[in-house]
Amino acid sequence: MTILIFSGKAFDGKRFHKDARLKVDSDSGRILEFGERGSVEEPRGAKKIGVEGGTFMPGLIDAHVHFYSSKGAGVNEWASVPDTLAVLRGAGDLLKLLRAGFTAVRELGTKGGVHLAQAVAEGDIEGPEVVSCARALAQTGGDDDPPAFPLEVAQQLASYTYFCDGPWECRRAVRKVARDGGRVVKFYASGAFSRGAKVKPNFTEEETRAIVDESKRLGLKVAAHAYGEEAIGRAVGCGVDSIEHGLGITPRLASEMKRKGIRYVPTLVTYANPAYKNRYNEMVKRHLSDDMLIAKERGAEVVMGSDIVGDGARPHGRNFEEIVEEARFLGNREALVAATSRAADCLGLEKAGSLRRGYRADVVVVRGDPERDIQSLAPEKVVHVMKSGKLV
Ligand SMILES: [Zn+2]
User: Fold this and answer.
1) Which of 308, 338, 302, 348 has the alpha carbon at shortest distance from 129?
2) Which is nearest to 265 in space by CA: 312, 222, 318, 209?
3) Given 7, 12, 113, 261, which residue has the most CB atoms within 10 angstroms?
4) What is the pLDDT of residues 222-241, one digit of tens each?
5) CATH number for the 61-347 domain, one of 3.20.20.140, 2.60.120.10, 1.20.120.910, 3.40.50.720?
6) Span from the CA of 64 to the centroid of ligand 1 (angstroms)
7) How far away, in angstroms, is 372 Cα from ligand 1 center?
């Protein structure tokens, strides 16, 4: 048994500890013990990992990413990147994420997303664990359907989405996601801004029910991309597991989400990006102020998700900035909960996201103290990253 020890300031997935100690079994990749420094003995021959005035915590988790891997931005660019090139670039992005302290991500629509996930799981490439949706579900003419191409060509190019219409096609699309090896179902309950500022709900009530019901039957969680009260309301009413983006959330919907345990993944950093902020004023401005206050006041639980897509406008690497944005509303501790223990739960990861006995030894050490300064999570402050008991 190879034992590794971390001692110093810690965040355990829920709260901070001034002086704690973590004991890891590198061979099994599991945590042996975590507690106050004095209560955890240091076995002889254990290897010490330097924390020196920094802080150690569970590996970070981004619950909403894509690896579109295009140089330009927008649905036509994303759709027309060859699949092979997309996954090669995606592999590079995964390494960047891991080095920045991310040990798990959920991808919600990516060319070859399940294969990226498989390559990481089998040790062919280095990266965070990838929970893949295989392909997103969108209605024909919906957000991922590049309208400049004939439909068959569009479907072929947009190989990160299944277009489906009517409840049985929707059920079949969910079954295809399961067949592909997807671990979560992502669907577009509304459009986004790629067709302009007017965003409409997508999928009927009947179709939405079919997607959610079929997903539950197959044991998959459901993530709904939703803008606007009508789309959020329909998704929440049908019992999805998370609302992605959630622009235009209302107090009534936030309360219903709390009651049903539906998570809120606000992807603020995407809208704070000048490409969005300056173009789509009202809804975005509201999202960057009121929406988070409503979620907080009504107790809807926030999970960290950046919606960084890995294109020229929104490259991977500084995903921690989502935590910084969320911390403005939630405070540093709660924003870290959203990016560790609660995110692990949202992704359906077993025994991950917390420093607890028997949990996965995914650990990041940063220089500085994120309790006081959330910027301590920046990649240049990351000193060590451990995934499943192995230092990266
Ligand atoms: Zn997204």
Assistant:
1) 348
2) 222
3) 113
4) 999 999 999 999 999 999 99
5) 3.20.20.140
6) 6
7) 30
